[in-house]
Structure formats: C-alpha cells, structure tokens
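pinning this so it doesn't scroll away 📌
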Amino acid sequence: MMEETKIKICGLSRLCDIDYVNELKPDYVGFVFAKSRRRITREHAWTLRQKLDPKIQAVGVFVNELAPVVAGYLEAGIIDLAQLHGCEDEIYLHSLRQQTGQPIIKAFSIRNREDVTKASESTADYILLDHGAGGTGTAFDWTLVQEMKRPFFLAGGLGPDNIEHAMAAVHPFGVDISSGVETDGYKDYHKIQDCIRRIRNV
C-alpha cells in the first residue's frame, strides 16, 4: 500500500487559520518568518502554536537567516522543522543540525535538470521543489522531476484545480500549498477542505 501524501498548508497568520487546520488535519503547517505578505512575528507564531493541534507539525520558513536565530525558534518549540529558502549551503545545514538536531527542509528553485541534481544531493532531511523564490503561486515544469529518485515536497502554484494532476504527474512525498487555498490573500476554509479531500482521495 502506498504511503499517504504528506500535506503542508503554508502561510498561516490568523487564529481562525489554526481552527481550520485543527479540523482538517494536514500533516504540517507553515509559519513564514521571511520577508513576505504572510510574514508573522515570533510572538504571534508562539500564540498560534499554542492553539495548534500537537499532532500537526509546525514548520518555520526562513530566507538567509542566521543559523542561531533559526535554532532559537526550534529550541523554543515555536516550530518543529526549519524550511530554508535562501542560499543556505551545506555548512549552514550542518551547523543548524549540530545546534538543534531537528529536521531541515531545504527548498530549491527548479528551472533545469542541473537544479534537480543539486536538490538530489542535498544533505537536508527533506527537500522542497518550487518555482522561483517561493510563494509566487506559479508552477514549474513538472516533467523535470518525474525521474527524481529522492522523495520531495512539491510546491508552487498548487490548489484544488490541479492538485490531483500534480500528484499523478510526479508522485511527490508531500505537497506544500499556500496561495492556492487563499481568497483575497487569506486562507479559505473551503479551499483547504477541498484540496485535502482531493489529495486523500487519490
């Protein structure tokens, strides 16, 4: 039996977003600490984390943040995993892992096969394949990763209208969804519900 595709709903910012995910039960949620319209403060993330179902893992999204700062979020229990979207290299990953022992997701922009090779060779616990800098709501060319041997999170432009096609096309370990489950820039309960239903029915 195939393992269920992991689901991450990223960019939560409101208490009602936490209510939505506590009911709908994705595997992960994302709090954005990098420059973005979805960015929240450490204090606000802590408030949201207190309300989050403990069975759902919290992921912190960072771009070129100092490793000790990221470690502080992990050590404080605000997040369970760090997701890195910048130029963090293998030395950075090693340093962060030495400090915390917590899992790391490294994001890669996929434009060509060289990017796929680079992602495959990362020592991160998980890799996430995206279009551009992330959070753009745009999909990349999925044919580039159809032969990828390593499990990965698929991100970029995913939503209820294409999630089943994406899963059939590349069979990802997990999917990372943000703008595709929003209306007017905020998380939409019905879109999250529809997306999760479609994923779990595949």
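📌 and the second one:
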Amino acid sequence: MSEIIIHSGETFEKVFLNESVNLHFVQEAGSHVKIHVLNMPFDNSITRNIDISKQSCPTEAKNNIVVEQVGEGCSTEIYALAYLHGDESVTAETHVTHAVGGGTSNQLVKFVLADRARGSFIGDLKIAPDAQKTEAHQTNRNLLLSEDAEMRTRPQLEIYADDVKATHGASTGQLDESALFYMQQRGIDKQKARQLLVNAFMIDVLNTISDETLREKLINTLDSDL
C-alpha cells in the first residue's frame, strides 16, 4: 500500500469505479479527502471524456482505505457503494484515525446484494486521547435481494477523548413489502417497483459526488434499470 500525503490546505477527491482500491492517506492540517468507491454495473459510455478510474465490474474486489489525520482541522469523506449480482463479491475495509483534534470524518457504505452475491464491511474508527473537538460518523446500510445473498459487517469505534461527537451504525434488511404493495396498487409492476426502491436506497451515495456531469450520468444509469 503506497502512502499518499495530503499537505496542509490541499484537497484530494476522486471516484474509483469497479476496481480493487488500496489507499493510505496521511492528512496534514486543514486538508480534505473525499473519495467514492463504486462497484456496480454501468454503461462504459457514461464516463467517456471524464477523468475517472473505470473498468468492468469485477467478480471479486477488495477495497482497503486507511486515513490518518495527523494535522488539526482535517476533513475526511468516504463513500462506498456495491451493487452485486451472480457470484460477485466485494470487501470494503476502512481504517480512519483521528490523531489530533478539530477534525471531521464521515463514512457512508452501502451494499445491495442479489442472487448469491457476498459483501463484507470492516470499519475501524479511532479517536486518540489528544483528538478533542472531533466529529466522526460511520454508517453501513445493506439491502439483501435474495435469500442466497450474504452480508457480513463489523463496525468498530474506539474513542479515547472526552470532548467529541461520534456515531456509528450498521443494518441489514430486505425490501419493504408494504412499500412494494403500495406501489403496485398504483399501477407500477412489481419488477419496476423493486428497482425504484433499490435505486432510492443507493442514490444518496451517488448524490455526494461533486462532479455534476458524472453524478447525473451515474444516476441516469440507475434509471435505465441495471
């Protein structure tokens, strides 16, 4: 794993699409890291002429993101989305350490698993004794579309400072049958209703992408019934 130093006041922002990501960031004072790791089917033409990592959806991917905030006033944003079918498998692992105070971090990781797909999330969030005035949030939400799909999640929160705001949470469930019934009663066929609910579950991750052109194209891909 190569180390990437984000110097004071600098910003690193990138979308990684359909690849295994292995990143280690060291953030100096006032720096900003914002990354999206997306494992999902899409039309290759949507990213034409856009600076983005892109390839076909892998059968298996392992994503490991390590962030160390060593300077005050840093901000970190990690967004991950995996929409998997067949025998596809994705592991998402994050390790965020607030070594000093005044920083913020936000993690939102979502999995949608169909067929025999497998997902795994390991989230490690640490706030050191000297990291007062830190605000950190970690959220993992998972949607199972098949009885054969499998999700494992292990969020971890270690807080050694007193004056902080920190939350973490994880949940795994299925589509809301009452919502499906409600939509079908209003003339939407079951398959379309399922896709609309899945899209609604995923879209808040895509909405955090700063590049408006890419964001809209990815959202339009959802609307095309992947």
